[in-house]
Amino acid sequence: MSYELRNEINELLDSQPGLKNADNKMDYIIQGVYKYSLDYDGYIAQGERKIKLIVHKNFPNNFPKFYIYDYPEHIEHIYQDGNVCLATIGEMIYFLNENPSLIAFINKFVNAFIYTLDWFEKYNTYPFGDRKHGYEGLLDYYLNDLKLTKKQYYCMAIMIDEGKYRGHMPCICDSGKKLRDCHGKYMLPIIKNTLYRNEFIKEAFMILTEDGKNVGKNPAK
Ligand SMILES: [Zn+2]
Fold first, then answer.
1. pLDDT tens, position by position, 37-48
2. CB 32 within 8 A of CB 51
3. Burial class, 207, CB count within 10 angstroms (exposed 0-12 / middle 13-18 / buried 19+)
4. Alpha carbon of 175 to ligand 1 centroid (Å)
5. Coil, strand, or helix at residue 45?
6. How far apart are CA 193 and CA 197, in angstroms?
7. Which of 45, 82, 99, 218 gets the highest tally of CB atoms within 10 A of its CB?
8. pLDDT at 162
9. pLDDT tens across 35-84, in order?
10. Distance in Å, CA 184 to ligand 1 centroid
11. How far apart are the CA of 208 and the centre of ligand 1, in A?
12. Residue 189 phi/psi, 5° resolution?
């Protein structure tokens, strides 16, 4: 059975009576009041938030855009127009490849963000550690979660950009394993999907450019 986004949109609207959908040719535009009750490790975040979620009809091949209104001034990862930086492109691709579901995406990324927001308002800190804003936060995912060095991440980006991935080649991380038995599982979902690939390359280019500007500025790093 093929994935039916419409069913998940309906499921979302049924469970969230404060949200309304106004869709156009390209997107579902879901906005209104989102009710939540989230429990991670015993701290319960509960309340209502004014949100907007734009879901391209091509989902999961496009990433939903999430906006939040009324947030504390100093919180990171929210742009001035309310657009939230939910995660890195690589992380969203890996997740959606394993879980091609809008509800799963909301549970994983949107709810985690709302929980963070709630926590930040109370304690003025971040519950899941301090993910940096901008390119450094994006890069952190590849360095910490994927356990790559910066150079290895660039290798990964170039390999994806130039279409040079071959499963039998040695992995970029120097584990001695073949790519297909190691970091290939993160790279293949990006390579196999043109839209994902373009987004990943755009992000890599941004990280590379921004990181290049900082090289030499901070010799301690
Ligand atoms: Zn590897």
1. 999 888 899 999
2. yes
3. buried
4. 6
5. strand
6. 6
7. 45
8. 95
9. 999 998 888 999 999 999 999 999 999 999 999 998 888 888 888 788 89
10. 7
11. 21
12. -60, -30
